[in-house]
Design brief:
This protein is an alpha/beta fold. The protein has ten helices and ten strands. It has a six-stranded parallel sheet with strand order 7-6-5-8-9-10, with helices on both faces. Helix 5 links the parallel strand 5 and strand 6. The structure holds 2'-monophosphoadenosine-5'-diphosphate (ATR). 2'-monophosphoadenosine-5'-diphosphate binds next to helix 5.
Amino acid sequence: MEHSLSPVMHNAAFAELGIDCVYVSFRVLPRWLRDAVRGLRSQGILGFNVTFPHKIEIVRHMQKLDQTAERIGAVNTVLNAEGELVGYNTDGVGAIEALKQNGVDLSDSSFTILGAGGAARAIVFALAEKATRIHVLNRTFRKAERLKREVKRKLRKDIEVAPLSKKWLTQTLSATNVLVNATSVGAGAEPRGSFMNELHLDRAMTVFDIVYGGPESTLLQKARQQGCKTIPGIEMLLYQGASAFEIWTGRGAPIETMRMALANHERQ
Ligand code: ATR
């Protein structure tokens, strides 16, 4: 069984609502993904989550895709609807809920998202439906450009994109209220020359780092020292999990129980 925080919060939620289900996690190597999915389906399992590195590859094994998952091109939550696997993506809603619950006014903020990978795509698509000022900076610029084109085509919304360079960071952050790190960089010490060392944070900014697990990320430490409001990645884990829970069970997720289970686990 693999180390993951999801069983902690989902099992606490099942217990709270008296639902006779159990959440377990397994490591699946990419070459076994197809067999793993078939196995889950044939055993009538209610649903499951998929995470790195399977979120895109899993799409081809779904019988149906929810509109959000289709837009993003990635799935993190699967519902087994009597043998028909339906793919959802709750990462975007999870991030939006984490922002809202932490006091961010979506329509009145200017956002900068760092990254254009799977997680960033989910966040940008969800945010573009609610916010008007979105900048995306990514190391590989063409991925950011592709995201801009897709958001325009699928949502008819405009976002700004730029390379993740010192020049663009400085320029973009000067007009940013909410910074979201959706790159996989952040846990542990930063390598020399990392973009993290180029960030100039204003204390009026809210900083959200989706990296979770382990000690506080370098970005959040820096943000806290600057006096910024910070949102840790565990908040996104919590709200994407709550949304998945609701898809599987059709019942409202007991958020506080889930939050407490995660906090207790972190303290151990
Ligand atoms: P996830 O599903 O977690 O989003 P991903 O799709 O592999 O994972 O995306 C990782 C993101 O982190 C990408 O935006 C990646 O930038 P590239 O598109 O240029 O690869 C970004 N990333 C990873 N390592 C990075 C680094 N050292 N510096 C800057 N960005 C980095």
